[in-house]
């Protein structure tokens, strides 16, 4: 996410969510998934702005944002994400995008592509030992 303002990433993500949830009801009858496809394109842009997934890179870059910066913009409540360093935070951000891409593909009846994104989401979370639940 080098040199890309976090606000731009969040804006694109919020626009994708709006297309998926609100604009869906305005689709023409002959194009029932028009807003879903537009949302998918925005999610892919966000994914590109965040950079390659950790398993796709040779070296892990340092995050430019502070701990937890912007996680609320990606729909993650503060109690869900434990600050475990920039690598884990980046993995969570990418996992959120993969999750939404997976749901998008499933919503458009592209089940195998949806499954691939959801599996990648889980891999990202497990790979860096991201804890999604605080111990009691």
Q: Can you describe what's shown?
A:
It is a single chain. The chain is mostly helical and 136 residues long. It has one domain. It is 53% helix and 0% strand. Helix 1 (6-21) packs antiparallel against helix 2 (34-50) and helix 2 runs antiparallel to helix 3 (86-107). The longest helix is centred in the last third of the chain and has 22 residues, at 86-107. Residues 54-65 have a biased composition (Acidic residues). It comes from Homo sapiens.
Number of helices: 4
Number of domains: 1
Task: Give a count of the beta strands, DSSP E runs of length 2 or more.
Answer: 0
Morphology call: globular
**Which segments are poorly predicted (pLDDT under 50) over 5 or more consecutive residues?**
58-68
Separation, N- and C-terminal Cα atoms: 34 Å
Q: What can be said about the biggest beta sheet? A: none
Helix content: 40-55%
The percent range for strand residues is under 5%
- Class based on secondary structure composition and strand pairing: mainly alpha
The sequence of SSEs as H and E is HHHH
Write down the overall mean pLDDT.
79
Protein name: Kinesin family binding protein
Organism: Homo sapiens
Biased composition (Acidic residues): 54-65
Region (Disordered): 48-76
